[in-house]
Amino acid sequence: MTPLILGLWIANVAFDTVGQLAFKAAASGTEEDGGLAHWRAMAMRPWIWLGIGCYGVEFLVWIAFLSLVPLSDGVLLGSINIVAIMLAGRWLFGEKLTGLRVVGIGLVSLGVAIVGAGG
Amino acid sequence: MRRFYLFGFLLLMAFDTLAQLSFKLAGSHALPVTADAAWLARVFAQPWVYGAVAGYIGAFFTWMTLLRHAPIGPAFAASHLEVVSVMLLSAWLLHEPLTLPRVLGAATIVAGILCLAAAERETLVVAPGPAG
């Protein structure tokens, strides 16, 4: 992995995680349930715009990343996003990590390491 | 109903796979990677980037529809199992060999995704119970 590829991979994980968490923050905590009022309330929150901004940047970062690595390796290495989001969800939203989740996170991380070491 | 879920999961995987293949082709046609407007112009000048957008939009609406009806565990798994379909299509269309690290890594990641999906199902089943 060259420094550019590594940097793009880390940037992708960072923007994806911040984006997902921002969407989560925008969606939770609105009083209105469903419908147009719910969407209007979400649009007033800065969180949703942070999320959209992150996804816009991630879109370009991901294209740049994939153009430099084989597609098979790219999507497999991208699976680390699942791990990052789960860990961040536990840290920020207190989401529980049960036994099976810990095993799943470990296996996904191990698989990413195998692809990274072999690529 | 089971057939509806299966169709939904396959559709989700198809949209995700289309998006990833399009991302790759959009990037390959815009090389070299440079942090400037010229690279952006190269990316948006060819059709693949719009295939990626179409795949993403299709996946988004399929995902939202599935979430409304299907259990979250299998839906979560289906939304990430495109790593396998993308790997197989890359071998076929992009001539990327199925090397041992790729196959072993993919199998390990898929096992992890299935664990995470099972964990989601667990919470769904347990949460509404009277003892929960």
UniProtKB/TrEMBL annotation, chain A:
InterPro entries the UniProt entry points to: EmrE-like (IPR037185)
Domain of life assignment: Bacteria
Residues that span the membrane, as ranges: 47-69, 75-93, 100-118
The entry's keywords: Membrane, Transmembrane, Transmembrane helix
Protein name: EamA family transporter
Organism: Luteibacter jiangsuensis
UniProtKB/TrEMBL annotation, chain B:
Primary location recorded for the protein, binned into one broad class: membrane
Entry's localization field: Cell membrane
Family annotation (SUPFAM superfamilies): Multidrug resistance efflux transporter EmrE
Membrane-topology annotation of the record: Multi-pass membrane protein
Signal peptide coordinates: none
Domain called EamA: residue spans: 47-116
Keywords: Cell inner membrane, Cell membrane, Lipid A biosynthesis, Lipid biosynthesis, Lipid metabolism, Lipopolysaccharide biosynthesis, Membrane, Transmembrane, Transmembrane helix
Presence of keyword Membrane: yes
Coiled coil regions in record: none
Listed transmembrane segments: 43-63, 75-94, 100-119
Superkingdom of this protein's organism: Bacteria
Protein name as it appears in the record: EamA family transporter
